[in-house]
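Look over what follows to help learners.
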Amino acid sequence: MTEEIIIAGFGGQGVLSMGKILAYSAIMQDMEVTWMPSYGPEMRGGTANVTVILSDERISSPIITRYDTAIILNQQSMTKFEHTVKPGGLLLYDPNGILHPPTRTDIRIAKVEAAKEAAAMKMPKGFNMIVLGGLLKINPLVKTENVVKGLKKSLPERYHHMLADNEKALMRGMEIVETVHDL
């Protein structure tokens, strides 16, 4: 099994963190992993994306242009990456700020209203964990307990008091994700 993933959105949405947590989670399952971030000098507010590859076998190159899964968190990323999802792949998006939802019919499409839910939960920093929960409900690439371990590994110790809230956000994402188009 090899899964090639792009996570894309604005800096400050937890894009890179989500990729790192997913990578650490896969490492906990003895998978081969690459994590390759890309972001502009603006950081918060600028565009950011990360490519994550999870595999049972050695990964030959971290550079890819077609993805099995795309997680899209803003319109700019939708425009740039919708067409890069392989036929039969998955596009998961948060509709907040998406003016032109995905239109492809040869891929699976799901949405998770993470921004809206993070606000309702009064956990704006839980946004990316809600999205990750949505992904793992539709495509259980890694075990939930390993996500919690990966989260603990990737968060600085001063934020470990937020682990329970992040786990709650992860579970909430699994509950609210919706299929928009299935194959």
